[in-house]
Amino acid sequence: MSAQMLPVVNLDVFQSSSGSSESLQECRKAADALIVYGALLLHDSRVSEDDNNTFLDLLEDYFNQPESVLKQDERPELGYQVGVTLENTEKPKCAAHEPCLDIIARLDPAERPLDISAHQPDPKCRFFWKMGDSPPYETAFPGLNAENVVPQASELRERWSPIMDRWGWAMKDAVEDLGEMVAIGLGLHGDTFRGAGKYGPHLLAPTASDLVKYAEKDTILAGFHTDLNFLTIHGRSRYPGLNIWARNTGKRISVKFPPTGRYLLVQAGKQLEHLSGGLIKAGYHEVVVNEDTLQAVERRKAQLPDRPLIRISSTFFWHLSSDYDLAPIRALQDRARALKGHPTGLGKVDLEEESVYEPMKVGHQVQNELRHIALLA
Ligand SMILES: [Fe+2]
User: N or C terminus of the chain: which is more exposed, having fewer CB within 10 Å?
Assistant: First the structure.
């Protein structure tokens, strides 16, 4: 496994000197990082670690409730797109999806993810908190734009919305600004992605894994997969365990944030792959219990013995608008074709991979993906 650090993109430079050559260089760095790795680390001084910690505490308390209480917040009729998803519901698409199994087979054996072929759903829970603005037009996908669920327990109800919104907005601002940087870095108008996702059903989407129940090394908490949305952004988790695959080399990278400072991890999703005609590929990742996870559990137990031992991922899914017509941008698709097989290695990790991107509404793309992961009938 590679100990390599991902490229670090400085959003502060873009914020403070938009239009300067330094800023343009940072934009190109962002675009290239997504083409080469499918992922990057983002430095944004506006983001507060305290807000992330307050958010992680709230979610630990929420998922520490009995399952019967959590169950009241499930909305299976809405494809679980708001409220809670309990453990053993979501299946990694790869477990039964041949093109994805082929990708694993083509990886160097030393770089492969933990074996997901047993077809087990993920033992992780999730909460979806919608952060998007409702479209001012009649959407063809009302189910993907449903009202949020607020937990009932009195000790959670009061603090829930302000904490979720505060952290959610910090991540949303960061990822939208990064989207603008990437657009500029790709030679597009800065508003290209931001505009296409103006009414997207963006989600603050923490996952929760019970580290008492799933305390064995090499347990898969979330099996090898890509995200179905446009860009995913993560704050720091209290427990390591996220592995991502660099798109250019197929090497597995264990994600490590710089020890201090305001950093976020960003990974490309399927909607960006589709819109860029495969120039930027959605990044594969998994969450597992590894040696570092277990050490973090021991440290946490010693420091705060009364706190729940639950791994919360500080995750936000940024989406394109459901009614947006998803089709490759010509200039990017041409570049993707030109790069395929290019000796520099840019974006050429897997020449066998699918590269047909049929035009469709974003809402249909999302519904197709949700069926694959067993969240929609
Ligand atoms: Fe994911």
Answer: C
